[in-house]
Here is the input.
Amino acid sequence: MAKVVKRHPFQRDWRRDLLIAALISMLLAMALLLYTFGLTSDFIFRLFNAFLGIFILLAGTAFVIVPSVNWLFLRFSGKKAKKAPPATAPRRNLPKKAD
Here is the structure.
């Protein structure tokens, strides 16, 4: 059986996280613009600007500010980050060796 390597929670695929943040930003921008202005002649331009603004705020908060504050707190408080216990094979009942 292949050994399964566990990764730290911060060692993730950032492309997937950015895609989710982009989709949330696009839906929020569309809802905000459609509710506020309706379909106008410059809807695409406004949508792009609103998407960009919301995406920068969301991604900056989620991927820069929160991890930085977490790192600074752990660094200056003297606490160590919790690490997952090493993955070990299941224990088996082996017969004891007679010496």
